[in-house]
TrEMBL record:
The keyword rRNA-binding applies. An essential GTPase that binds both GDP and GTP, with rapid nucleotide exchange. Plays a role in 16S rRNA processing and 30S ribosomal subunit biogenesis and possibly also in cell cycle regulation and energy metabolism. One of its GO terms (biological process) is ribosomal small subunit assembly. The keyword Repressor does not apply. GTP binds at residues 11-18, 58-62, 121-124. This is GTPase Era. InterPro entries: G_ERA_dom, GTP-bd, GTPase_Era-like, KH_dom-like_a/b, KH_dom_type_2, KH_sf_prok-type, P-loop_NTPase, Small_GTP-bd. Residues 11-18 are annotated as: G1. Residues 121-124 are annotated as: G4.
Length: 294
């Protein structure tokens, strides 16, 4: 028996939810980019120590829905709030609390989940402690009794927050083995690695409208390379040459970088083949959204 709990990470896009999860686990489970709307799945990261198992749910950033995909992503986040023991609301230290933040706070309050903690992320970007204190006071006025600050270069800030979360845990059988850090498959991880690599290599609006499908993932023979065949979907005909690049240099770089990341994480040689396909309506197509796992 251990003490366990489920913790939902909620906030606007690009507020540091995935960075938080990766720091807590000391493993890059969730993809991180400087582009909003990067996370498109509820990803579970599992923190284990001798006495506790805390299941963190990294959710897509809640944003104004512009299509069926956006609606689906927001719904995943709302469901996570409902089904969690503790809600962590993240908001960056270097950004003002705006209408988007207040909308999410209202959604949290609608669930009547009293176990809620406000987390001011990126506090290492502030110049003075007074700036963080001012934002903490604003959050307390919005209904958060407990407010914590975390920073990429401040490891003790994560430890303090973990210790606080432990006070909400209850005795139960753990859901996962002690050595498991996530609930995702190698196939899913391959998809996310390709998407992360494509987003980080492209600097225009294109990353917001790409999706990755793994057509084939063959890891049955340990003596051979893992064989992975993937498709990157774009919405417009004009986007395809951007992703492919001059003389195929961009898609080649994405393929090579993705393969190297996979080999490092999988600890196995990988053969990777990526092709680009146009699917103009995929963000509003129910069948295609389900096919892509959203």
């Amino acid at each position: 028996m251990k003490k366990v709990c489920n913790v939902c990470l909620i906030g606007r896009p690009n507020v540091g939810k995935s960075t938080f999860l990766n720091n807590v686990l000391n493993f890059n489970l969730s993809i991180i980019t400087d582009k909003p709307q990067t996370t498109k799945d509820n990803i579970r990261g599992i923190y284990n120590d001798k006495d506790y198992q805390i299941i963190f749910i990294d959710t897509p950033g809640i944003h104004k829905a512009e299509n069926l995909l956006s609606e689906r992503l927001n719904s995943k986040s709302y469901e996570a709030i409902e089904n969690s023991d503790v809600v962590l609301f993240l908001t960056p230290a270097n950004e003002a609390i705006g209408t988007g933040d207040k909308f999410i706070i209202e959604k949290i309050n609608e669930t009547n989940n009293e176990n809620k903690i406000a987390v001011i992320s990126k506090i290492d970007l502030l110049n003075t402690k007074e700036e963080a204190d001012k934002k903490a006071e604003e959050l307390k006025k919005l209904g958060f009794e407990k407010v914590f600050g975390i920073g990429q270069n401040l490891p003790t800030s994560y430890l303090d927050l973990i210790n606080e979360i432990k006070t909400y845990c209850y005795e139960d059988e753990p859901l996962y083995p002690d050595d498991q850090i996530g609930d995702i498959t190698l196939r899913f991880m391959a998809k996310e690695i390709i998407r992360e690599t494509a987003i980080n290599n492209l600097k225009f609006e294109l990353p917001h409208s790409i999706a990755v499908e793994i057509e084939q993932f063959d890891d049955k023979n340990e003596d051979e390379d893992y064989k992975i065949y993937a498709l990157i979907y774009v919405k417009k005909k004009s986007q395809k040459p951007i992703l492919i690049g001059k003389d195929g240099q961009m898609i080649k770089k994405i393929s090579i970088d993705s393969r190297h990341k996979m080999e490092k994480i999988f600890n196995h040689k990988v053969f990777l083949n990526i092709k680009v396909k146009i699917s103009e309506d995929w963000v509003d197509n129910e069948f295609k959204i389900k096919q892509l796992g959203y």
